[in-house]
């Protein structure tokens, strides 16, 4: 075993962050994955490996045949998952080893985040790090005994053969190790009930932000080092903190980061939308896959940042990104697809990372003709923008004003040229082989994109954004939401097969609350309450006052765990805690506010130790530290007045409204037939109603 783990340590770092290229060929084999709907699983359906989908059938077969299980986890847009498939899983020698000794299970981590989290925790315990592809060997009962990420063919074969030899000769060693590892997995992501009194008004948020700022990249934005991930929820919190504290230095860092990301090759300068991360410090060369969840959160972030700064660049980014979502990532039912692959075929019919997105100077010169001189300066078709093999990833350094002055052209002329360039290059690019599309639909990611559309509508007022949001909300409510408040996680070809996880409830509740606040259609608010009640009944731990990631209706994989640390996507528990805080303002006597407060108390100590992993919790903390307002508008002009509110950045309010008289604690005795009145309330105390939106907004803060 010691040899195996020493070997593993030399291979663990060769995963998804590398840039090695792949080729793909077909095989005359078919396995059990052919019956699945996940594009990632279907990509492996013709491997010679006898893959099976994760489930009770595979586990029972392993127990019956007393075989070890290989669990291989990846996702459709993962470049190195494809590399390992080509090098190992398409190879008949590898397949013979796996088929003889193991039950082999393929998992789409996006479909089964519960499976992924359990085994990624295991590999982190074993090796200190993990990533995708994630490859784990388990006992027949599913408990892990060994694992790693990407392996070359011979290394993979050697590792499997050594594991099998140990299992044949000294199975007790593997069983003993599995027992120890199981205890380790159970101890991870544990949260203890914090019974101490915590005064959130005295929590050292400013000191935490100051400590965070020590790691800011002052030149390129974001945090120091590479690769660079965008971390939208970190930036959302910093934006709010800068606004509420009137901290110009912090706001400058947020806008520097947003500017550099928008200028970088990380952003698709031709077609809109962001790649998953940048491989370098200047946001230039991306890992080219495009994920729905990144773009959803960034639409919200840039919309909010526009409200604070009024920068035209941020409006442009939102418009182009939503154009990409509508064009490439939306199905006829209003659902959103999951991702676009990093890889596509180049001019030699070879799969290459980024082939779809990059250009040679010769191509650009031919396409843009007399405009090429301006274009190459604008997008740095020079040593600054060069990637490899005479190919360029378009990246900006200068503002529009600087380009206008340099070439003596007006703003109107440059904007017309930019539009023409993008249309020309998009049409040309679309003739290339396109990256593979992962066309499954996930409730959690759809809800994030729904919220993105709502936030964009609030900021820019475009009806098409609200229409897209309503269509998606209808899709979720009719296809994914069951009568009892339960959600499905996945959807494809009219079929939903996996029960929802906490992330599905958290993000859908959040999106539906936001949709209510712009439409005033109580259907969305009531559905949010219904889902929250279901989540509390089926996910909530009464002892620890946190929500498990999986429902009590689903079998635990080794153990049930709490997802509470924020990452590229906010943790499901932090989103749920914020939801309960907001719902408690709409629905009295639910106990939601006490649960939200206790959840925040539970993580409060760890926030101080690792603040960058708790940015969404810090955003919730701001609700407790500062005044949080209920704004209720009643009267015939309610919709127009809400639109006026939406033109301002107001992170510390909820909105409710009605055209006429309505029952409920927020509306009682507030209707006046001849006026549209605005009530601003905080801590159950309301100011005198006003009709002027400007006066009401000024009473919320002194920054407007």
From TrEMBL:
CDD domains: SSP411. One of its GO terms (biological process) is carbohydrate metabolic process. Residues 444-541 form the Non-reducing end beta-L-arabinofuranosidase-like GH127 catalytic domain. Residues 30-184 form the Spermatogenesis-associated protein 20-like TRX domain. Pfam families: Beta-AFase-like_GH127_cat, Thioredox_DsbH. InterPro entries: 6-hairpin_glycosidase_sf, 6hp_glycosidase-like_sf, Beta-AFase-like_GH127_cat, Ssp411, Ssp411-like_TRX, Thioredoxin-like_sf. PANTHER family: SPERMATOGENESIS-ASSOCIATED PROTEIN 20. This is Thioredoxin domain-containing protein. It comes from Aequorivita antarctica.
